[in-house]
Structure to design on (322 residues):
């Protein structure tokens, strides 16, 4: 049974106020406006971008983070669809998901079918949007550079696609083992160039998808793609400027694709696509959740995530009822 929060009820929210500092506060719950709904958050995924913002204290500050929400609709605005009330949902929210309650425009809410994990929907939607940028040519080799959560999601998507060979490249993959279903397996960064050379007969990969968000990952991706191949940049590069060998990229006629989208309509459409895929396929992503943190102890939780290596893939914030 879902109930609307009582007037004057206080709820817990986390606000990033400085580098490595969340202030966890109690504040009143604002009702939704005419076109919005109020969400009672149950779980929120921790994006690598959230950890970067927390580590760097990147402006503007203060800021509310958390956008990979799973929630229940507990109140609706007068213009919002009444049938959303009480539904388990996810939603596109630009932030504020590290809290017990957050509002979302009703048009940005995506109802979840039974068994669908709402925390997976937004990151999978990002991968689907990047996937839609790839050339639809059969028989080609695709390499994913990135051993994190997004790299694993993309590798599993590509394993179901038209590409003849799929290879994931990243640190520590030899110890971790192969991603479920990856046809060409996995290889560590230090062995990547030789592995791609052998896999492609020395040509290089037809398509390389970079999902590290790092300078070194971007450099490696540029070395793995073949002449006149496609380099898709899907990593979130927010910790400073990047330097690339543009002369070499020009000479090799590499096509560069930015796989990020900011149009909200496209993002929400991809989230609906992701929800349908999770409900109707055996993509199997729940095993990628490796760590759970709690709202009342958010700073310590983020400290732990920042220090983890190897075993960490994805953190999830568990939000208490009260």
């Amino acid at each position: 049974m879902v109930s609307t929060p009582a007037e004057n009820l206080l709820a817990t929210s986390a606000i990033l106020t400085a580098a490595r500092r969340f202030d966890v506060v109690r504040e009143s719950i604002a009702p939704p406006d005419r076109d919005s709904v109020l969400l009672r958050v149950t779980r929120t995924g921790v994006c690598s971008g959230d950890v970067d913002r927390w580590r760097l204290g990147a402006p503007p500050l203060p800021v509310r983070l958390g956008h990979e929400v799973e929630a229940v609709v507990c109140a609706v605005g007068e213009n919002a669809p009444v049938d959303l009330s009480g539904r388990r949902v996810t939603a596109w929210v630009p932030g504020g998901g590290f809290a017990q309650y957050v509002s979302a425009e009703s048009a940005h809410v995506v109802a979840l079918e039974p068994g669908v994990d709402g925390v997976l929907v937004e990151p999978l939607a990002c991968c689907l949007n990047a996937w839609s940028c790839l050339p639809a040519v059969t028989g080609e080799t695709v390499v994913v550079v990135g051993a994190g959560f997004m790299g694993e999601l993309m590798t599993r998507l590509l394993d179901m696609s038209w590409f003849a060979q799929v290879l994931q490249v990243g640190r520590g993959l030899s110890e971790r083992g192969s991603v479920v279903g990856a046809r060409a397996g996995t290889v560590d960064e230090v062995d990547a160039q030789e592995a791609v050379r052998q896999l492609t007969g020395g040509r290089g990969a037809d398509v390389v998808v970079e999902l590290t968000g790092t300078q070194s990952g971007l450099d490696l991706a540029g070395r793995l793609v073949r002449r006149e191949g496609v380099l898709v940049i899907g990593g979130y590069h927010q910790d400073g400027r990047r330097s690339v060998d543009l002369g070499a990229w020009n000479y090799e006629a590499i096509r560069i694709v930015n796989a990020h989208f900011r149009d909200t309509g496209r993002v929400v459409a991809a989230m609906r696509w992701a929800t349908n895929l999770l409900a109707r396929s055996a993509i199997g992503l729940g095993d990628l959740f490796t760590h759970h943190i709690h709202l009342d102890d958010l700073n310590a939780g983020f400290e732990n995530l920042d220090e983890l290596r190897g075993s960490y893939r994805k953190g999830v914030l568990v939000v208490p009822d009260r």
Q: What stands out?
A: The radius of gyration is 21 Å. The first strand starts at residue 10 and ends at 18. The CA atoms of residues 42 and 319 lie 5 Å apart. The chain has a mean pLDDT of 90.
